[in-house]
Amino acid sequence: SQQGEEDPQALSIQEGENATMNCSYKTSINNLQWYRQNSGRGLVHLILIRSNEREKHSGRLRVTLDTSKKSSSLLITASRAADTASYFCATDAKAAGNKLTFGGGTRVLVKP
Amino acid sequence: EPEVTQTPSHQVTQMGQEVILRCVPISNHLYFYWYRQILGQKVEFLVSFYNNEISEKSEIFDDQFSVERPDGSNFTLKIRSTKLEDSAMYFCASRVERLNSNQPQHFGDGTRLSIL
Predict the structure, then answer these.
(1) Which of B13, B18, B32 is nearest to B88 (CA)?
(2) Residue B95 and residue A98: Cβ atoms within 8 Å?
(3) Fewest CB within 10 angstroms: A6, A28, A29, A51, which?
(4) Do the chains contact at B56 and A97, CB–CB below 8 Å?
(5) Is B7 on the interface with A (CB under 8 A)?
């Protein structure tokens, strides 16, 4: 798989349920970031986890990072219809300019 | 909260024409980026810019592309002679502080470029 691949590609859940998506990457990273994109809109930064961190929380979001497996997960708890969006992981690798390498994203549909 | 703003939101251009996409990064940010997202595909890095010069560019960013920070606030992406395959959503992003400081990039809402 390529740097920053998400799994699953699509997820459909009922409001109130939890949504979990995973991301795998290949190279050494400074940090890994999760973004949300509503249809046709820009990328909204959700959370950044550094390479020396294993877990991070922000509101209903929980992110884990396993650098030995080169993988991360994003958990959205108690989902709401407004959480319907595409979610992308992006890796900030140890390279000049701190460019982000994005995965293909997970499309999440939260049904009311 | 400060935002990255991009104009126009939608640009329609004939193939072969020049196009300039504009961005106003967050005012105290030092690093600037352009990315693009072809419909249904991943977001792809184009170029990063710091201290008035390009830090890194991707293979996509060929001689047809250029970036400029003409004044203290704007950051532009120019495509000299557009091709059909340049049709995409173009995102500008900016980031504060120094390299490797583990700060997120903040993105604008994008410019949808349609080449006819």
Answers:
(1) B13
(2) yes
(3) A28
(4) yes
(5) no
Contacts of B30 in chain A (CB under 8 A): none
Considering chain B, what is the average pLDDT of its residues?
A: 92
- Using CA atoms, how far residue B55 sits from A70, A84, B28, in Å, is 26, 35, 18
Nearest-Cα distance to chain A for B23, in Å, is 13
Residue-wise pLDDT for B4-36, tens only, equals: 999 999 999 999 999 999 999 998 898 999 999
**Contact predicate A102/A89, CB 8 Å:** yes
Q: Which two three-digit tokens encode residue A29? A: 């990273």
Q: What is the pLDDT of residues A71-102, one digit of tens each?
A: 999 999 999 999 999 999 999 887 656 789 99
Write the pLDDT tens digit of every residue in A21-53. 999 998 888 899 999 999 878 899 999 999 999
* Residues of chain B contacting A107 with CB distance shorter than 8 Å: none
Cβ-based neighbours of A6, under 8 Å, separated by 6 or more: A21, A22, A23, A87, A88, A89, A103, A104, A105, A106
CB contact A45 to B (< 8 Å): yes
Instruction: Name the token pair of B96.
Output: 């504060």
- DSSP characters over B85-112: GG-EEEEEEEE-SSTTS----EE---EE
